Amino acid sequence: MSYKIPTGFPENFLWGGATAANQLEGGYNEGGKGLSTSDMMTAGTHTVPRRITTELLPTENYPSHEAIDFYHRYAEDIALFGEMGFKVFRLSIAWSRIFPNGDDTEPSEEGLKFYDNVFAELKKQGIEPLVTISHYEAPFALAQKYNGWSDRRVIDFYVKYCETLFNRYKGVVKYWLTFNEINILTMPFGTFLAGAMLPEGGMELTNPNSSSDQARFQALHHQFVASAKAVKLGHSIDPDFKIGCMIAYMCAYPLTSNPDDVLLAQQKDNIGNFLCGDVQVRGEYPGFAKRYFAEKGVELEIAEGDEQTLLEGTVDFYTFSYYSSVCVSADPEQEKIGGNMSMGLKNPYLKASAWEWQIDPQGLRWVLNNVYNRYRLPMMVVENGLGAVDEVQADGSIHDDYRIEYLREHIKEMKEAIIDGVDLIGYTPWGCIDLVSAGTGEMKKRYGFIHVDKDNEGKGTLDRSRKDSFHWYKKVISSNGEALE
Q1: Of all helices (H) and strands (E), which one includes residue 175?
Q2: Which of 121, 383, 413, 442 is catalytic?
Q3: What pLDDT was estimated at residue 336?
Q4: Most C-beta atoms within 10 A of its C-beta, which of 43, 61, 138, 435?
Q5: Is 109 a catalytic residue?
Q6: Is 66 labeled as catalytic in the residue annotation?
């Protein structure tokens, strides 16, 4: 018997790019917008962590306040996306632009009209929106009044926010993601960034003692319930909605063939990646999570009806971010290296970026197969890219061949995964236009095909210009992933 296998990307593959409101929009105090958690985060660097302030301090630089001013320049930016040939654009809606305090009785019409205009520009360019409902941004008032997602009442505020969006944009937006990188709440780093909870031990964003396991996993449970309720609600409002999850896939290999290392890698995969995937895709907590909670002394408060809600509110497709991989070992003496919001061990077979993120295109193929073989749902890679320092030449050109090489090799591995049988339907590289780094607050760490004239201190004209990668990616899209050189 002969098998027919794919030879490349499907004809309707969704090529595009990804951004987030808090790193892109600016206009932090315009259009009726309330302060968000990201508006309270200072600038940082690779070595100096971002800090959280409970009030705005005139001596601090808050990068999200202006970001790259998409709020005023969205038409120009979307026209550039259209020029590249985007089929899809991943953006997030700023919750505090719709409900300034999170628990408001009525939404802000001015905020909704802003996104009306954004979606109209996307439609003009023939670009499908992919909307993240909550992307590292919540009304700061929810952090102050309720300590964010630690309070079960925030579920209802979120669902009301979703209901507003679903009704407003029915027939306009088809693809939705409930929470960005929801699994970041499994780590202390996610306490404020993803959970909108004020840190318990110091106001540094990366403070390893920012919350207890109990607090974070309880907040995560509330987000699971909120996501499931949103999925059910969305399908009732428009059966054509496709609502997905979004996981920061943290790819960890065993450093050696020592069974202790192999088992540790599996455990990291389970808790870091599959706990959230299993709840959102399968609708229930897996056995390994229950054991983990018991060993950590975590006792979740699960309200009557929550388990049924999780079963009924499973997602339609699975999306994830992938930037790099690390190794893990039971040996505590091994050399550590950075990664996407995590630390792991150095892989002797890989090169690393200037920010110590190890470059591993084949890891993307491994992840795609690993996830698809578990869930059998359509998949999208909704973040992937290389953060690097770009040098502007005297004539204004930017020769970012290092970015092209990174993306080329990852696209090749996506194609291999499709031939393997993975149902991959879209690819939106991160920061298709230069924007503020979530982890460090820098502009210096650039991902985009489009350069934005702004530096770490917030100085610059904000003028946009095309990098070499802009023209390269345009050819990739027009050839449906065949013209990669």
Answers
A1: strand 175-179
A2: 383
A3: 73
A4: 138
A5: no
A6: no
